[in-house]
Design brief:
The chain is 73% helix and 0% strand. By secondary structure, the protein is an all-alpha fold. The protein starts with 8 loop residues before the first helix and ends with a helix.
């Protein structure tokens, strides 16, 4: 019988951070932003609040880490899409995987964080995060579509339109019973393909 493999300190730290971030997302998804307390986060993560503070500082630090994580997830979904693939393929994958991201419970929790930042007395998440997330999404869009021939300013407007459409559909999912969105997603795909010159 072999001895158990010991994890490094870095591996244990990464696992603890992941459990805390997952706890925040799960709690916001189930209880909402206002009822996601420090105690609730610690309980769900199976750690003390002191351990949470050790990794992230105050609650605002955890919320910022969730926002960073949401972009990393989005970028990872599209990371294997080659910038030199046929335009129709890039557009189809952008819409398909973008919708998977924006319709996910993780993004719903992120959306609540963005909606509620600065609404309380303690201003837990600084306002620059909305702008940062759009800039980060724009970086992915540029990687995929900068060779389309469309001027940069028009690509930026098209990117903002696409993200607004995906976020709007995700908001409808939050407000209403989830329903098929295939027709809207197909329209978005056709619009992007036409505007990008395909």
């Amino acid at each position: 019988m072999s001895a158990p493999v010991r994890r490094t300190q870095a591996e244990r730290t990464a696992e603890t951070r992941r459990r805390i971030l997952d706890a925040v997302v799960e709690s916001i998804a189930e209880l909402g932003f206002q009822r996601t307390t420090a105690m609730e986060i610690a309980k769900r993560a199976g750690v003390t609040w002191g351990a949470v503070q050790h990794h992230f500082g105050a609650k605002g630090g955890i919320l910022e880490a969730v926002l960073e994580d949401t972009f990393e997830r989005f970028e990872a979904r599209l990371g294997d899409v080659a910038a030199d693939a046929p335009l129709a393929r890039r557009v189809a994958l952008f819409v398909e995987r973008g919708w998977e991201h924006f319709a996910s419970p993780h993004f719903r929790s992120t959306f609540e964080i963005l909606l509620h930042h600065g609404k309380g007395e303690d201003e837990e998440v600084p306002p620059h995060w909305q702008e940062k997330i759009f800039r980060d999404f724009d970086r992915v869009f540029e990687r995929l579509f900068s060779n389309s021939g469309l001027p940069r300013r028009e690509r930026a407007a098209l990117h903002q339109f696409a993200v607004a459409e995906l976020m709007g559909l995700a908001a409808l999912e939050m407000l209403d019973q989830p329903r098929p969105r295939a027709a809207q997603l197909a329209l978005l795909e056709r619009t992007l393909l036409r505007e990008l010159g395909g």
